[in-house]
Structures
1.
Amino acid sequence: MKLNKHKPAQHTEMEFGGALGAACIPVFLPLTVLYLLSVCRTPGGALLQWPPPLPHSTFLWDPVAAAIMVGWISLQSALYLLPMGKVSLPENPQFCLCFNAAGFHALCMTAVLLAVCVCLGMPLGYLFDLVLPLAVCAIGVSYLLALYLYIRSFWAPAHQLALGGNTGNPLYDFFIGRELNPRIGSFDLKFFCELRPGLIGWVVLNAAMLMKEVELRGSSSLAMLLVNGFQLLYVTDALWNEEAVLTTMDIVHDGFGFMLAFGDLAWVPFTYGLQAMFLVIHPQTLSPLSALGIILLNGVGYSIFRKSNSQKNQFRRDPAHKSIAHLETIATATGKRLLVSGWWGFVRHPNYLGDILMALAWSLPCGVSHLLPYFYVVYFSILLVHREARDERQCRAKYGLAWDTYCRRVPYRIIPYIY
Ligand SMILES: NC(=O)C1=CN([C@@H]2O[C@H](COP(=O)(O)OP(=O)(O)OC[C@H]3O[C@@H](n4cnc5c(N)ncnc54)[C@H](OP(=O)(O)O)[C@@H]3O)[C@@H](O)[C@H]2O)C=CC1
Ligand SMILES: CC(C)CCC[C@@H](C)[C@H]1CC=C2C3=C(CC[C@@]21C)[C@@]1(C)CC[C@H](O)C(C)(C)[C@@H]1CC3
């Protein structure tokens, strides 16, 4: 196959701070992961402390962690390859790509395997002690993967290149990703990374923190159970509805480069689970009433998140389906319609609202004395506001006047009457 490097740049508008952002983020974010994990293990747990709790280099590398990482990615790859649940990518019928969407099976099989290993005496809580070298390995794997993706993208067919990742600036293109759906045979690297090793790894690490708490204090706290339960629900939901990820901008629009590789493999498992890690060293007592309030908040958030995502997915797959046929819509010049009633008539991103409410419910069990467990809420709100702005730009370019009409009909973006 011919090299595609002489193709003219298709799209020159740069996001994430352009070339400077692309040079700084791959250094700054991995260091942030290591810093957060180190702070989490200090008794003070203060996010801003001087001198910063920098780990000694001997705590950053452990061959056992490297072996676990290789074993973990091999296990998840093998589970991904099991011939179950095939779905095609609806946005790109011309490529006619098929995806293995059997994430829920993979989660269940991983759980059974882990349970067997724990019964045979494997000390799962030991992952708490290994968390820094594990994060270092995950960061290393993301760098290697991103490098491989960048190099192989020069042999990809031109129609498989992402619009935003082909500026000609090597740093930026490495960061954003040049190829849309890189595959080895039928193994889709982006789809696999987005949902399997990182998301399942996140809940396994949470379970390890629970085990560590039991080792240290003899039983697990209500706060730890809530954090584990809420995040397990979120991950199970993502894997149960795995094919829905095929309509998100990450799969449809963005290339696969360092940002997503690192986000999926290192950022998600090692920063999304900070609350459980925090609770191991900073135990909290929760009253039954506050626990009830937090469960309610998570329930409301989850219900908005799930119902709005399902409503849009159903609408995009089959607009005539009886569950959504009664909803009001507006036509666009592309032939696609936009929902203007139901959840998508409430705010323009009801799914983000639900997600933020859940994020808050995951942090509240950790009390209000420390900032660290709220890192996820703050980061996630920034991510979603930025994501909303990117999506808005793309939708305005796609739908033109119809999008302006939608914005007039539904004036608030995420939080009604506020934003
Ligand atoms: N936990 C985490 O770290 C993260 C979680 N998420 C979650 O992932 C989920 C998916 O988010 P994301 O991919 O950002 O975006 P959305 O699922 O919100 O999808 C946006 C797309 O939906 C379509 N759309 C927008 N408005 C309408 C409408 N009124 N009627 C019909 N279609 C509409 C448009 O695409 P088109 O018209 O082309 O179909 C638009 O580009 C969310 O729940 C989010 O909270 C996202 C990022 C990170
Ligand atoms: C490294 C940067 C700071 C940002 C990286 C962003 C990524 C971590 C996120 C981009 C979109 C994501 C999604 C999920 C996880 C986080 C990333 C990869 C998601 C799989 C979480 C579970 C949800 O149910 C979902 C809707 C399937 C999510 C899809 C988007």
2.
Amino acid sequence: MNRPKIMGIGELVWDLLPDGRQLGGAPVNFAYWCNRLGAEGYPVSAVGSDDLGREAFDRLAATGLDLGYVQRNALPTGRVNVTLSGNGIPEYDIVAGVAWDALEADAGTLELAARADAVCWGSLAQRSETSRRAIASILEATRPECLKVFDINIRQHWYSREIVTASLGQADVLKLNEDELPLVASLLGTGKSGAEAIAELVRAFSLRYVVYTAGADHSEIHGAEGLLSRIPTPEIEVADTVGAGDSFTAAFITSLLQGEPVAASHRKAVETAAKVCTVHGAIPRPQ
Ligand SMILES: OC[C@H]1O[C@](O)(CO)[C@@H](O)[C@@H]1O
């Protein structure tokens, strides 16, 4: 099987969960799952020169990920206070002014971008102008055939109409969930909801796919022809849902690039996300 090169660009954080800290950050979770499912997954992020940064490196290195694109700078390593509701749904309090807010598009990263088969980014890492510019430069360095995946991952108030529309304009694939869809529809002033809002996004931004997850209910893949696949979410014992969406996107994209059809890639995504929900945190602790 071929090993597509897939980059996850943006935040790297320690998720401070009620039962301890876990590595996280959507792009890192994404890269981890791409790698685990048979792609070459590359996290592109930054940590500080502090103890948490060193520990993040050690923990990620133990997973076998290539950390050659994780930068180090003088800011503190990212941290997120995570509280969980009764059914394991997280709420995030994301510390600002941290290492991944100063991401740079260095020569090595641009060179990797020029060879990448897919790149994935979100809205949160674009909260700082520096990282927003770096992400734009990395996207610009990709080949036309590189699949551009915007996993919107709206967190707290860290998004804007400008960031969302600019990223949608770059994307081939959009991933969003049931809370994010109405938010995006209202940001863009479409006045539409549900499947109509998705169809409008596909049309307005010439998207190849919209990957839509509705938590414990179901998920859908949409294309220019409309609904392509719909799968009910399996019933499982949920530890927490942290990182479930990131692993969903990773499995869908990896499978597609490995040549699987949309429906099979969607099934793989559903299975992978279900697995992530049964463990605490986004990246399982090494055994
Ligand atoms: O990336 C922001 C937050 O979202 C997650 O990636 C889960 O999707 C967490 O690991 C992180 O704290």
